[in-house]
Amino acid sequence: MADKQILSPENLLEKAGILIEALPFMRRYAGKSIVVKFGGHAMGKQAYLDSFAADMMLLRQIGAQPVIVHGGGPQIGSMLERLQIESQFVNGLRVTDEATISVVEMVLSGAINKSLVASIIAAGGNAVGLSGKDGSLITASKIAANKDDSAVDLGFVGTPKSVDPKVLYALIEAGMIPVIAPIGLGEGGMTYNINADTAAGAIAGAIGASRLLMLTDVSGVQDKEGQHIAKLSLSKARALIKDGTVSGGMIPKVQTCIDAVEQGAEAAVIMDGRSAHAALVELFTEQGIGTLITSD
């Protein structure tokens, strides 16, 4: 058996200092909901998945109430390819016919959701997997899309119409960490595939989350010179979209954060979630690592 690493007094003092710095932030988030959007690419790496699961367990241990909404685009694409079902995209959204929605639900609510739940339990936490269909959590409506000035039918692709968080409150009260697949229920029992960012934002607004953490593969919002922006008001975030500073795939992420804050979340953060313990660094340090979007 390898000998335990012996830390010097200086190392021990440094660790104690980190804990002391984090303590006020731990108190801040005790009893508060934190919605975390976890991306599909990161979930393919077990080491990162284990690190993320440990972070979520730690949040629950200090009294915070993490709620996880996960994506799964790469895994869905891989399964569709294996089943020889062709994928088509319009404006970044997957056209989802009847065959595709069955695969989407199987991958999101099945393999990915349960893998994340298992990792949290293995880390010492207690998690329950569900989709937006369970407990009527997310009622969805069909998305209309246009391409080249013509209407395009995206099939079973939806957007949150309403969120009923009763099932989340019940799980949180029982000490559980909800892990949510972004599948919604439409009229007549129809199943809809919902963008995970959009689902996370709608849930964060509905439960009045203290924070919405959007874990992405970028450090946050940048100005025209490419410099990181630490904090944005809603009005400034809108202005950056309008003048083109925020562009491409960053637009829907920033808009999701704006919508979440307008609907009741205290603040939202766009951050690079690829580093180990990124969520803890954002929440438990003064400067954080992402772009914080607030009402003022």
List the helices and strands and how they pair.
Blueprint: H1 9-29, E1 33-38, H2 46-61, E2 65-70, H3 73-82, E3 89-90, E4 93-94, H4 98-122, E5 127-131, E6 138-142, E7 145-147, E8 150-152, E9 157-163, H5 166-173, E10 177-181, E11 183-185, E12 191-194, H6 196-206, E13 211-216, E14 231-233, H7 234-242, H8 250-262, E15 267-272, H9 278-284, E16 291-294
Parallel strand pairs: 1-2, 1-13, 2-10, 5-10, 9-12, 13-15, 14-16
Antiparallel strand pairs: 3-4, 6-9, 7-8, 11-12, 15-16
Helix pairs in contact: 2-4, 3-4, 6-8, 7-8
How is this structure best described in words?
By secondary structure, the protein is α/β, with parallel strands linked by helices. It has one domain: Acetylglutamate kinase-like (Carbamate kinase), CATH 3.40.1160. Helices cover 41% and strands 24% of the residues. It contains 9 helices and 16 strands. Strands 5-10-2-1-13-15-16-14 form an 8-stranded mixed β-sheet, sandwiched between helices. Strands 6-9-12-11 form a 4-stranded mixed β-sheet. Strands 3-4 form a two-stranded antiparallel sheet. Helix 2 packs across helix 4, helix 3 crosses helix 4 and helix 6 packs parallel to helix 8. The longest helix has 25 residues. The chain starts with 8 loop residues before the first helix and ends with a strand.
